[in-house]
Design goal:
The chain is mainly α. It is built from four helices and no strands. The chain has helices at 2-19, 23-36, 40-57, 72-78.
Length: 79
C-alpha cells in the first residue's frame, strides 16, 4: 500500500509542476469527468490526489510535509 501512496504523491507533484495553484481544481475536474463516465475507481484516484495537493497546501496539517513545490520533480530526478 505504501507504494501506491508514493505513486499518488508523485502524480500530485507532477500536477503542481504543470498547473501550479490550479492543480487542485484540475484534479477535481478530472474526478468529476470520471464520475460522469461512471468510472468510480478513476474518480476516487483523482480525488485522493487532489486531497494530497490540498493537504500539502495547508500548513499545520499532518501531510503538509509533502514537497509539492515546482521543480521538486526535477530536483529529485537530477539530485
Amino acid at each position: 500500500m505504501e507504494g501506491s501512496k508514493e505513486a499518488l504523491e508523485e502524480v500530485a507533484r507532477e500536477f503542481v509542476a504543470l498547473y501550479g495553484r490550479d492543480a487542485w481544481k484540475m484534479l477535481r475536474d478530472r474526478a468529476a469527468v470520471a464520475d460522469e463516465y461512471g468510472d468510480n475507481l478513476q474518480a476516487k484516484a483523482w480525488r485522493e490526489i487532489a486531497a494530497i495537493v490540498s493537504a500539502a497546501r495547508s500548513p499545520g496539517r499532518p501531510s503538509a510535509n509533502i514537497n509539492l513545490r515546482r521543480g521538486a520533480i526535477l530536483a529529485r530526478t537530477i539530485g
